[in-house]
Design a protein that fits this description.
By secondary structure, the protein is mainly alpha-helical. The protein has a single domain (about 1-140), classed as Four Helix Bundle (Hemerythrin (Met), subunit A). About 85% of the residues lie in helices and about 0% in strands. It contains six helices and no strands. The protein has helices spanning about 1-25, 30-50, 60-75, 80-90, 90-105, 115-140. Helix 2 packs across helix 5. The radius of gyration is 15 Å and the shape is globular. The two termini are about 20 Å apart. This is HEPN domain-containing protein. InterPro entries: HEPN_dom.
Length: about 140
Amino acid sequence: MSGERVELLKSRSKRFLEVGVELLRRGLLDLAAFNIQQSCQLRVEAALLRILGDIPRVHSVRELLGILSAKLEEAGLGDASSTVKSFARARREVLADIDSAYTMSRYSLFTFTSGDVEEMARVCSELHRLLDEVEERVLG
């Protein structure tokens, strides 16, 4: 069952990113940012479920990446842990924007610029590729 759930999470994650990019093209920036955040969150959750067998009840992409990195380290997979940690550090500001999209797109008067959302979409795509590589390295 968990294999099916992993694939469902990955599929939904890809669809959220596709919809986010389409909304960005249409100029619906807050909705685009929210969909991109959902894509990132689901993709990290899929990796956690596949690699560790569990998904913590957390919405923050940065926190989820921290959990993944820590669990990989605990499992003796320091190289994979360092890869995740380096990714998160190098993109800390954009990941903070992605995290803030979870609530800001619904409750705040603040809006993102198209450049902000384009960068979020780019980092989200990078995150998908990174986690595909980490899963392959860890699980073969």
